[in-house]
Amino acid sequence: MKNTALWIAMLIPVAGQPGSAQPAPGQSDPGLQHRPSGDPEGQHVTVVHEAGDKTVLPSDAYGLYRFSDHPNAFGEGLQINEQFGDVSGYLTITDGKGSHAKFSSYFLSQVTGGNSHFAFTTRAVHGVSYSFDGHVQRGPGMAPAQDGYYVLNGTLIAHDQAGNATQTRTVTFSLTAQH
Fold first, then answer.
1. What is the pTM of this model?
2. Residue 12, CA distances (Å) to 31, 46, 47 in order
């Protein structure tokens, strides 16, 4: 019985201690931070339409793209969304392999496109950002329900502001099947 009482006493949090439900005397309740309604400040994507086009990609080319050189890599890819003329999305990259891989998502800050040209720039995360410049074309998929109906071919550049360095590679992104 003594052991049971000791265990119960250890499980009851003390005010002001980690895991306690109440703040310590003299401390205020942290609560939730207020966020403004609408688009978060600084999260708007600048969209530049080229050659008089009304969209940066064909209407059925929005969605999730995977790197063609490793299509089964879980979590890596490019998500491009369009709604009411607004474009949003993010690039997800891993910085390691195996069980130690860490994913980082980079939200798009500017998108340029039209007449098969497509380019984007991401916001920086920990001093690193990405840019892509290339073109969109029909891929090997025979219908939108098949992987690769559209592909993005071009150059992906990693920009490291801390070291003023860049890393460039040629990539192909394949649109995943649209169901």
1. 0.71
2. 22, 51, 54
